[in-house]
Structures are given as structure tokens and as C-alpha cells.
Amino acid sequence: MFPGLAAAAAAHRCSWAALCRLGGGPAVARGRSQGWKNLMTFESFTSMIPSIHPQISVLNQVKLYSTNVQKGGQGSQTPRTDKAPPLTQAAENIGAELKAPLKQDPLQVRVKAVLKKREYGSKYTKNNFITGVRAINEFCLKSSDLEQLRKIRRRSPHDDTESFTVFLRSDVEAKALEVWGSLEALAREKKLRKEAEIEYRERLFRNQRILREYGDFLGNTKPRSRAISVFLKGPGKVVMVAICINGLNCFFKFLAWIYTGSASMFSEAIHSLSDTCNQGLLALGISKSVQTPDPSHPYGFSNMRYISSLISGVGIFMMGAGLSWYHGIMGLLHPQPMESLLWAYCILAGSLVSEGATLLVAINELRRSAQANGTSFYKYVMESRDPSTNVILLEDTAAVLGVMIAATCMGLTSITGNPLYDSLGSLGVGTLLGVVSAFLISTNIEALLGRSIQPEQVQRLTELLESDPSVRAIHDVKATDLGLGKVRFKAEVDFDGRVVTRSYLEKQDFDQMMQEIEEVKTPEQLEAFMLKHGENIIDTLGAEVDRLEKELKKRNPEVRHVDLEIL
């Protein structure tokens, strides 16, 4: 257990054996060993003491060397032997050192003031603001109940108002408990009001249906709505003209097919029928696209034009191209002789004139829109910026070409008497309709997926933001076309905190702020000072975001929705 004591005993036995060998036997050795007892005891003691005191060592003779300088300048080293101090004196000195208290310098510790971290928890709503409408609806309060609460003016998120009044959510919750007594009573009241709201909506729906039936019976005397006025100009006017003309062409072409039995005339009749139905879908899409945005559709219904155009393209492919191919293939497999084609030629000539007039109306409208957007006619059509007019343009172009193909094939059939040419004409019209439908489907799908605006326009919007002093950089820019000339712009903005802080300081009283700084003596006072001005600086940053959004919309009227996120 004590290795130091074992080593001391072993050394003692060795020294005893050595004394016996020197002579005199055990008695002499016993006498000579008396002088070694104290030394061995001390050695065993020193072997058990840790080496924290370097002055404790095995006591023995210490040999010192000194240099004697002779006359000749040569020195010689001679050993000089000094005797160690007595053992008792050395032991007393070491014992005194061990008993003496350790001298330690006073520690100087500098305590760093650290603000205690607050644990807010997973759901912390104490500092949340709530509007008066939400307080009344969600907590079943009255406007008179809110008059007793603290009112806070905050910056409004809407463009038409500068600021609005909000309340602390904790105050509203406390007031609701005061009014209703408990959370269970509040929950019951919410359930009752929800049931009353559902019943009110059902009654409102029934009343609206009754009013609609009453208006249909007595006649509608309301002023012209926005959905009707949209068909008096622009793409709506083009669609209505096309519906009227294609409807008449469809009727006369079916009469000619019944009279002649021509496959090409049947294809043209089906072509006009599909055009009329598709343009009806376009009219429905236009009327829906001008509806006012609601909470369920905050960005409006402008994409309804692309949806109706997409359905129109699918309808052209299924009805127009599909039936034309079917009738052409059946004519090739089972050719039949045709009657006189005179009336068919007359109807085709009338269709050519009417379809050509509709095509000119669509071309003029697209050229006017392309000039308003500062782009070329071809680029405007290929990008499908106006899907409704695009459909009319392509359908009428296909109609004019289809009339020419049908007339040519019918003429070859009249000259040669071979009905196969007429069937080939039906297949040609079907192929033409398939190409048009494929183009409409691809362009409208691209628009519905969220197509970006032109790179030049994106660069102009980005440069406008980067030229502002408070903006350091713009990242992750996304500008998508919402249809009807509306653009949604989103970007990550890296603001310059110094410029934002300086804009805040320009509105402050420096003397008052210096006085507040001089009064800061404790960490609590420093926390209160920083919280006060930190919140105001954050509000200033929000005001900078609002200012940039308004300026972006003002200089670019096509930008309707701006989302600037702070990086």
C-alpha cells in the first residue's frame, strides 16, 4: 500500500548487511547503524512525499567546484567538499515549510455582464398584435369592449391607408375571459356563431336564387355590368365577332354537306362547329378573368383566359382534327360519288370572305396590343400575351387555309371525278387543325406554369431597386406574368443597415437621445434603451420596404404585386 515504506525497509536491510561485512559482527554493525537510523527514517519519509517541494532530496555530501586563478592566468578546478547540515536541523526546516501556509496572490476576477436569455417557449403570443375585426370575430367581443383596451397605431400593409389601429393579443384574450368567464364558455359561443353563420349563408343563397328568378321574370333593369362591357372592346369584341361569323358558317356548311355529301365540306362544317364552341369557351374565360379578387383567389382570375384557351386547343384537336381525320379515312376506304358542288363552292366562297374579315379584326387587335407593349407582332403572338385573341387569330388562319384546301380538293374531284381527292382534302384540314391545337396547348401550358417576363424588363426592375441608397444587393429575382398585362415581382433584398439606421436617426431628437445614453448605468437600463430604439429601427426598415414597393409600382404600372423579402 505504501511503496515508499517498502523501499526504505529494503534500503535499511542492505545497509545492515554492508555493515556486517565491514567487520565487527552484528554488535559493531548495530553500533555503526545508530547514526543511520535517522537518515533512513527521513529517506523513507521523503520517498512518500510528492515532488512538490524540490528542496526535499536525499541528503548526502555535496561536492562543489571552485576555480583558483593562478598568477600565470591559468586556472585549475579543485573539488571542494561541504558537509551537509545536520539531519535534525534539515528535518526541522522541512517540517516548518510543510506546516507554513501557502502564499497565494489575490485573484482578480472580472465579471462580465451578460443579459439573461429568455425562454419564450414554442408558442409565444404575448406581444402579438390583432386587428379589431379579428378580435370581434375570433373572441366574440363587441366594439364597445375594445374601447377600453390599449390602442396602438401601426404602419398599414395596404396601399390606400398609411396606418391603422391594432390591439395587443394578450389584452384581447384577457378581455374575452372577463366577458365570457371561461375558455369553455367562449368556445361554446364560437360554435353557436359558426352555426348561425352557416345558416345565414344558406338563406342568402336561397334569397339570391329567388331574386335571380324574379329578375328573369320581370326583366333585368340593372346597369350594364363589367363582365358585359368587356365584350364591347379589345379581345372580348374580337371573340364575339368570331362567334357570330363562325356560327353562321357552321350552319351553311352543314347544309352544303347534307346536299353534296362531300367529305371536305363535312370537315369544314366540323371545323366551324369546333371554332364556335371554342370561342364560346373563350368568352366564358374573358368574363371570369375580369372578376374582382376575393379571399379565395387573392391574385384574381386573370389565368382563366389561359385555361379557356387551353381547353379550346384540346377541343380543336378532339373535335376538329379527330373528326376530320375519321371522315377522311372513311372516304378513302369507302369512296362514294358526290352530287353537284355548285352550292358548296358558293358557301366556301362566303366562308372565305367572313373568315377573312374575322382574321383581319384579330390581326388589328393584336398589332395594337403589341405596339402598346413595345414588342413586335410576331413576338407578341409567339409568347401568347393575349391568349383569347391568339386563339381567334390561329383559328381564323386555319379556317382560311382550310377553305382553300377544301375548295382545291373539291375542284380536283369535280374535274377528275375521283372522290379520293376530296377525302385527301379532309385529311389535310384535320392535319392543319392538329398543328393549330398543338401550338395553342403548348403556349397556354407554358403560361399557366408561371412564365417569366422579358429579361430586359427584369433588368430594368432590378436596376431600379439597386439604385436606391438603402439597398446593397438584389438576389433571387422572380418576375412572373399573371396574364392581362399583370406582373408579380419577388426579390430578396440586402438592405444597408447603416443607411436605414441613419434615416431613423434623422427623425430623432439627438439631445434627448444623448440624455438617455447618459442615464444608462445598469444592464437593465441598457436593455430598455436598446429594445426601444431597436423596435423603431425595425419599423423604419418596414417603411423602407413599403416605399420601394410603391415606387416600383408607380414607375411600372404593369407590376401589380410586389414581394420584397429582407435578406
Automatic annotation (TrEMBL):
GO terms for biological process: intracellular zinc ion homeostasis; positive regulation of transcription by RNA polymerase II; regulation of mitochondrion organization. It is found in: Endoplasmic reticulum; Mitochondrion membrane; Nucleus. The chain crosses the membrane at residues 238-259, 306-329, 341-363, 392-415, 427-449. Residues 239-449 form the Cation efflux protein transmembrane domain. GO terms for cellular component: cytoplasmic vesicle; cytoskeleton; endoplasmic reticulum; mitochondrial membrane; nucleus. Keywords: Antiport, Endoplasmic reticulum, Ion transport, Membrane, Mitochondrion, Nucleus, Transcription, Transcription regulation, Transmembrane, Transmembrane helix, Transport, Zinc, Zinc transport. The keyword Mitochondrion applies. The keyword Nucleotide-binding does not apply. It catalyses: Zn(2+)(in) + 2 H(+)(out) = Zn(2+)(out) + 2 H(+)(in). GO terms for molecular function: antiporter activity; chromatin binding; nuclear receptor binding; transcription coactivator activity; zinc ion transmembrane transporter activity. CDD domains: NTD_ZNT9. Signal peptide: none annotated. It is a multi-pass membrane protein. SUPFAM superfamilies: Cation efflux protein transmembrane domain-like, Putative DNA-binding domain. NCBIfam families: CDF (TIGR01297). Belongs to the cation diffusion facilitator (CDF) transporter (TC 2.A.4) family. SLC30A subfamily. Mitochondrial proton-coupled zinc ion antiporter mediating the export of zinc from the mitochondria and involved in zinc homeostasis, zinc mobilization as well as mitochondrial morphology and health. In nucleus, functions as a secondary coactivator for nuclear receptors by cooperating with p160 coactivators subtypes. Plays a role in transcriptional activation of Wnt-responsive genes. PANTHER family: HUEL-CATION TRANSPORTER, PROTON-COUPLED ZINC ANTIPORTER SLC30A9, MITOCHONDRIAL. This is Proton-coupled zinc antiporter SLC30A9, mitochondrial. It comes from Rattus norvegicus (Rat). The gene is Slc30a9.
